């Protein structure tokens, strides 16, 4: 392949036609409260790790539900499992279990 | 006994007429179409309790029976005001004299072809929420226009509402919860289908609405995405390609669906501005009839003896419409008993 001095960016949009839902489905089956998330951001606002990183459970949940998995790992690794998000969640999502399941799902050869 | 004209035979007009006749007024309903019930006739089941729309209309009709004079296929073409009475010239050539008027002309659904970029009446698989409700009348699963099973369905909120470009800045109030209700019905009829709702805000303002939203998420796995549809195009296989932004993730989003449902909002009925003109009562910038006072006198107009109820004075749910009609009947009663 000759070098033309420039590269072509792959499309940056979310493609719901090629949407990767295996992780969403895995978490939903093991912790149904995951589906209740309304992306209000209470969790992200109180997140201990969020003070020092981009971590926000709202963002993680949203990325998983839209199949944008590649961005999840960098965020979720910052979580300290302190559980403050669970205290503030208005929809009673079992957030710590969700986070543990995400860790588990990322290690599994799902794709 | 004073004689009252109720203009519009939808559920607001029927309820107002029932209550007025219970208060011993002589009541005439003047309805331009050939049946009573108005827009509710086109609905299958109602939120939030999934009760049949037919049942509601039948119950109202039963209460009307023999008490109220009903003029179908009739419109008001001219009015005169003389000696504190309104003389209505009707489209059938007759002239009737009334002591008070209740305007219950309701709404029409937004003509979705005006929102051209959404492809309604261009692509056959783009339908309105009112058309979906018609499809619900048969108990069959929902199919596309080209007779395929609809496996992927998207609902678009705020079509013809909250949109300055098409001239409707207001919220139509009931479409949010209607979308959630309809999405759940499609999920029941088409098991395994993927259903998306694209919203700007979810206005689940009344009792049980939030429960429906919760149920849609948890029981039916309906997917809510915040973002307004930008444009639609048709693929060679008659499926539809949607372009939006996921405004929570801040990224453009694309998807293909079998069926696109536009949640059409409310606009004043076609004859509502003319009627307001005939009675010299003001309409708002949204073209709905303006009440004398939004809090205290929401059924009175600037004109003594002319009252308004239901969606003629702005979008309302069925429960709100019926309550408004009752309140209007009581205002009419007060008008005659305090003078």
Task: Describe the 3D structure.
The complex is a heterodimer of chains A (111) and B (339). Chain A has a single domain, classed as Fumarate Reductase Iron-sulfur Protein, Chain B, domain 2 (Orthogonal Bundle). Chain A is 41% helix and 2% strand. Chain A has helices spanning 22-30, 42-46, 57-65, 72-76, 84-88, 95-107, and one strand at 14-15. In chain A, helix 1 (22-30) crosses helix 6 (95-107). With 339 residues, chain B is of the alpha/beta class. Chain B has two domains: 3-106 and 269-337, 3-Layer(bba) Sandwich (FAD/NAD(P)-binding domain); 112-266, FAD/NAD(P)-binding domain (3-Layer(bba) Sandwich). Chain B has helices spanning 11-22, 53-64, 129-136, 175-189, 209-218, 272-278, 318-337, and strands at 3-7, 26-30, 45-46, 51-52, 69-71, 76-82, 85-90, 95-98, 100-103, 107-109, 126-128, 152-159, 194-199, 223-226, 231-234, 240-246, 251-257, 259-264, 266-268, 306-308. In chain B, the strands form six sheets. A five-stranded parallel β-sheet of chain B has the order 5-2-1-9-20, with helices on one face. In chain B, strands 11-18-12-13-14 form a five-stranded parallel β-sheet. In chain B, helix 4 (175-189) links the parallel strand 12 and strand 13. The relative contact order of chain B is 0.17. The mean pLDDT of chain B is 96.
List keywords for this structure.
heterodimer; A: mainly alpha; 6 helices; 2% strand; globular; B: 339 residues; FAD/NAD(P)-binding domain; five-stranded parallel beta sheet; 7 helices; 20 strands; 25% helix; 27% strand; elongated
Order of helices and strands of chain B: EHEEEHEEEEEEEHEHEHEEEEEEHEH
Named CATH architecture of the largest domain in chain B: 3-Layer(bba) Sandwich
The rounded Rg of chain A comes to 16 Å
**Span from first to last CA of chain A?**
29 Å
Described by strand count, sense and barrel closure, the largest sheet of chain A is: none
Q: Quaternary state, please?
A: heterodimer
Count the DSSP helices of chain B: 7
Strands of the largest sheet of chain B, in order across it? 5-2-1-9-20
Largest interface, chains and sizes: A-B, 19 and 17 residues
Nearest-integer average pLDDT of chain A: 92
Structural class of chain A, by secondary structure, is mainly alpha
Strand content of chain B: 25-35%
């Amino acid at each position: 392949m000759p070098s033309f001095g420039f590269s072509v960016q792959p499309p940056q949009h979310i493609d719901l036609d090629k949407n990767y839902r295996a992780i969403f489905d895995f978490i939903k089956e093991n912790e149904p409260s995951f589906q209740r998330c309304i992306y209000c951001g209470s969790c992200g606002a109180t997140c201990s790790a969020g003070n020092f990183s981009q971590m926000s459970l709202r963002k993680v949940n949203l990325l998983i539900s839209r199949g944008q998995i590649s961005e999840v790992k960098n965020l979720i690794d910052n979580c300290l499992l302190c559980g403050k998000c669970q205290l503030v969640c208005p929809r009673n999502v079992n957030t710590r279990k969700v986070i543990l399941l995400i860790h588990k799902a990322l290690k599994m050869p799902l794709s | 006994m004073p004689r009252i004209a109720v203009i519009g035979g939808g559920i607001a007009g029927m309820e107002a007429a029932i209550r007025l006749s219970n208060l011993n007024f002589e009541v005439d309903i003047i309805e331009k179409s050939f049946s009573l019930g108005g827009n509710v006739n086109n609905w299958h089941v109602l939120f939030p309790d999934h009760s049949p729309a037919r049942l509601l209309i039948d119950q109202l009709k039963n209460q009307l029976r023999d008490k109220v004079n009903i003029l179908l296929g009739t419109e008001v073409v001219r009015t005169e005001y003389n000696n504190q009475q309104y003389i209505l010239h009707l489209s059938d050539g007759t002239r009737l004299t009334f002591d008070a008027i209740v305007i219950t002309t309701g709404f029409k659904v937004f003509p979705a072809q005006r929102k051209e970029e959404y492809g309604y009446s261009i692509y056959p698989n783009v339908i309105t929420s009112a058309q979906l409700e018609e499809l619900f009348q048969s108990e069959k699963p929902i199919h596309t226009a080209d007779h395929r099973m609809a496996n992927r369905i998207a609902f678009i909120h705020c079509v013809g509402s909250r949109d300055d470009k098409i001239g409707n800045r207001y919220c139509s109030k009931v479409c949010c919860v209607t979308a959630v209700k309809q999405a759940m019905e499609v999920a029941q009829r088409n098991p395994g289908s993927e259903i998306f709702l694209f919203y700007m805000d979810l206005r689940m303002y009344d009792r049980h609405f939030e429960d429906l939203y919760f149920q849609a998420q948890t029981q039916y796995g309906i997917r809510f995405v915040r973002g307004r549809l930008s444009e639609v195009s048709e693929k060679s296989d008659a499926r539809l390609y949607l372009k939006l932004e996921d405004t929570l993730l801040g990224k453009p989003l694309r998807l293909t669906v079998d069926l696109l449902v536009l949640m059409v909002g409310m606009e004043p009925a076609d004859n509502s501005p003319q009627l307001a003109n005939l009675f010299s009562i003001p309409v708002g910038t949204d073209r709905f009839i303006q009440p004398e006072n939004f809090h205290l006198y929401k059924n009175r107009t600037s004109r003594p003896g002319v009252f308004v109820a239901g969606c003629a004075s702005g979008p309302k749910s069925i429960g709100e419409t019926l309550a408004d009609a009752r309140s209007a009947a009581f205002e009419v009663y007060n008008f005659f008993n305090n003078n």
